[in-house]
Amino acid sequence: MKNLKIANKVFNSRLILGSGKFSNPGLMSAAITASATELVTVALKRVNLGSEQDDMLEAVGSVDLLPNTSGVRTAREAVFAAEMAREALGTNWLKLEIHPDPKYLLPDPVETLMATIELAKKGFVVMPYVHADPVLCKRLEEAGAACVMPLGAPIGSNKGLKTLDFLQIIIEQSQVPVVVDAGIGAPSHAAQAMEMGADAVLVNTAIAVSGDPEKMAQAFKMAVEAGRMAYESKLGAIADQAQASSPLTSFIDA
Q1: Nearest Cα residue to 145 out of 173, 174, 180, 171
Q2: How far is residue 85 from each of residues 44, 50, 80, 97, 152, measured CA to CA in Å?
Q3: CA–CA gap between residue 234 and residue 217 (Å, rounded)
Q4: Integer angstrom CA distances of residue 117 from 55, 68, 76, 120, 182
Q5: DSSP characters for 174-214?
Q6: 95 tagged catalytic
Q7: For residue 12, how many other CB atoms are within 10 A of its CB?
Q8: Which pLDDT does position 185 carry in this prediction?
């Protein structure tokens, strides 16, 4: 399986983990290890930026941290949160989330584009979470986004790839990595995204709320690897009619 490159970093794993909804830091730490992920996103509002011994950060361990701006409602709030994170955590990597709607948590495309332009100018590695909108994803790419993170379905819904047709267009057109985020509820969903050509997936709820988060994290690791291997191997063409896998004529003649 080929490595994944985002901005100036190369990753062996194409599975990014979220850190919400785990019942305790120990389970989260075990899931991170089992998943073999190299990038974990943490909501800034859940981290005590003034403490050197924050439970959340300790559970993430030595894996690269990807702060996210979940909870902000405007581009202005997002830029402020990003600068706080860079100062406190020493990273310029950022998952940009702006969703003013508390019911469906859908990202605001206008504010997200405005924030991406500003943050890219300030030297951040911006990873914007957005609708599966091919036009918006190209605009974000032009604005300096390091990748795009279109949703498969609403956050935490576990519904799978409900935006399949649009994800295919985004993957086909994108010149930056495409990370399918939100809605992935089963390893088969992750494998499907990878088979389509997505560069990575981000998973949280499906692992955190499962009966055995550690084992589920391992299942997702295997699914992502299998899906990517299938993509790199090039899937066979789909036919409308039956295609015999063995010649029939010689058998009949005998």
Answers
A1: 174
A2: 7, 11, 9, 14, 27
A3: 26
A4: 33, 17, 12, 5, 23
A5: -SS-BEEES---SHHHHHHHHHHT-SEEEE-HHHHTSS-HH
A6: yes
A7: 11
A8: 94
Residue tagged 């991170």 (tokens): 32
Q: Tell me the DSSP string of 130-178.
A: E-S-HHHHHHHHHHT-S-BEEBSSSTT-----TTHHHHHHHHHH-SS-B
Give the model confidence (pLDDT) of 57-99 as tens digits.
777 778 889 999 988 999 999 999 999 989 888 899 999 999 9
56 phi-psi bin (left φ>0, alpha ψ -120 to 50, beta other): alpha
Tell me if residue 230 falls in helix, strand or coil.
Answer: helix
pLDDT of residue 37: 96
Q: What is the pLDDT of residues 164-204, one digit of tens each?
A: 999 999 999 999 999 999 999 999 999 999 999 999 999 99
User: CB-based burial of residue 21 (10 Å sphere; 0-12 exposed, 13-18 middle, 19+ buried)?
Assistant: middle
Task: Give the whole-angstrom CA distance, residue 70 versus residue 21.
Answer: 14
**Angle in degrees, CA 164, 168, 172, rounded to 5:** 170
Catalytic residue among 2, 9, 45, 95: 95
- The three-class DSSP label of residue 18 is strand
Written as six digits, the tokens of 115 are: 């924030």
Tokens read off for 103: 């019911």
Q: Spell out the alpha helix ranges (H) of 36-130.
A: 55-60, 75-89, 109-121
